[in-house]
Specification:
This protein is mainly alpha-helical. The protein is 63% helix and 11% strand. The protein has helices spanning 4-15, 65-69, 98-116, 155-163, 168-183, 188-197, 199-248, 250-261, 270-314, 319-360, 363-387; strands at 19-25, 28-31, 45-51, 59-62, 81-84, 89-90, 119-121, 129-134, 136-141. It starts with a helix and ends with a helix.
């Protein structure tokens, strides 16, 4: 019996030029124009549907899914409007049909493979053929039947991973490599069906290869960071000495001036005293400067150790590489610290020479220091005789 729902669906299919309709009503076989269905509402009718001889553009009536898939275009791009009779499925209605849902998943999978391909043959007289150039050429013909369609588990996750913006070109290369590995020995006409039936294996291999690449990429980023840290700390350590390099030239100049300006005098002279005071002030200045540089080096060393512990904790897999880098930095630190200690000793030596020259060029002081051992010896003997 024709009711509102059946009339509405038949009217829509007729309007899209998908079908022609013949009906047997009250024993009479008549052709029914689509716009006259409502006149027969409530009547018992045997409706015979036949595909229209002049279907509308992007519209298709199929007896079953295989009937629709016999049109090669619909293997990769479904019509905008279609009706599949054996499943009573009309594309314009929100009907949840598992078989048709699997068909749409297959279409999405084909689109993803299409986007990753290097060449596409869209000749309508043949099956859509996708070409991949990855070491060797691989071609996949998009041909399958309704029996080959099944749920593509985790297709959504696969598509999200493949279509995300990060490492897009590398993911495309990994996809092509995976296709070559899995399908290389299959016939071109069998490849897509094999891929549908083994989608889980294909997806797992792709994800595993991608994770391996990301792991290596992450390690490469860590190595780059280590090199940057190495250069940064090397520069910091070298700058500690470079900052005072110009000032260090004053040490030999000061020693020459002290030696040249000191003059022999009968008593403590103003000239020699000023030279000695200058030498003391210069030495104090250098001690402060060297102490400051030593503190800077110690701060760099402390920061360096903190970075070492953090990197060794976060990236234990490349501990050996870290050890080499930090051993080199430790060597640079120890070398600069040793240089500062040597300069410190030279300043002390210069100050001692200035004092000795001052005493030498002042006869009364020189004589006093020269007689000091004899006086100490006499005092010691005098103490011993008193005790006896």
């Amino acid at each position: 019996m024709l009711n509102d729902a059946s009339i509405e669906m038949l009217q829509a299919l007729f309007d899209l030029l998908l079908i022609d309709m013949n009906a047997v009503i009250d024993g009479n076989n008549i052709r029914i124009p689509g716009n006259s269905l409502s006149k027969h509402k409530g009547e018992v009718a045997k409706i015979q549907l036949t595909p229209s001889r002049h279907p509308g553009e992007n519209s298709f009536f199929a007896f079953n899914l295989d009937d629709m898939l016999s049109k090669v275009n619909y293997l990769h791009s479904p019509p905008l409007h279609f009706y599949i009779a054996d499943r009573n499925y009309y594309s314009d209605e929100c009907t949840n049909d598992p078989i048709i849902n699997n068909y749409f998943e297959t279409i999405r999978f084909v689109a993803a493979l299409n986007n990753a391909s290097d060449l596409v043959d869209k000749n309508n007289s043949r099956f859509l053929t996708l070409y991949y150039l990855q070491g060797s050429k691989l071609d996949i013909q998009i041909q399958y039947s309704a029996a080959d369609i099944s749920p593509l588990n985790d297709l959504e996750q696969f598509l999200e991973t493949l279509e995300s913006k990060e490492h897009k070109e590398q993911k495309r290369c990994i996809l092509k490599t995976t296709l070559v590995e899995i399908l290389g020995k299959k016939e071109p006409s069998e490849r897509f069906v094999y891929l549908l039936r083994h989608f889980s294996i294909f997806k797992s291999r792709f994800i595993d290869s991608l994770n391996l690449y990301l792991s290596e990429f992450s390690m490469d980023k860590v190595r780059e960071a280590i090199v940057e840290k190495k250069l940064e700390y090397t520069k910091k350590i070298n700058d500690v000495f470079s900052e005072i390099q110009g000032k260090l030239l004053a040490i030999p100049v000061a020693l020459i001036l002290i030696g040249g300006q000191m003059k022999s005098a009968e008593s403590i002279s103003l000239n020699n005293t000023l030279v000695l005071v200058g030498a003391v002030v210069f030495s104090i200045f250098m001690f402060f400067l060297l102490g400051n540089q030593r503190s800077t080096l110690d701060a760099i060393k402390e920061d360096l150790e903190s970075q070492r512990k953090k990197l060794e904790t976060d990236h234990a897999a490349i501990k050996c590489e870290l050890e080499k880098t930090f051993t080199m930095l430790d060597y640079r630190y120890n070398k600069q610290m040793m240089t500062i200690k040597i300069i410190d000793r030279i300043v002390w030596l210069g100050l001692a020479l200035a004092i000795i020259l001052f005493i030498y060029n002042t006869p009364p002081l020189w004589d006093w220091f020269a007689s000091l051992p004899a006086k100490l010896s006499a005092a010691k003997n005098s103490k011993l005789s008193v005790e006896y």
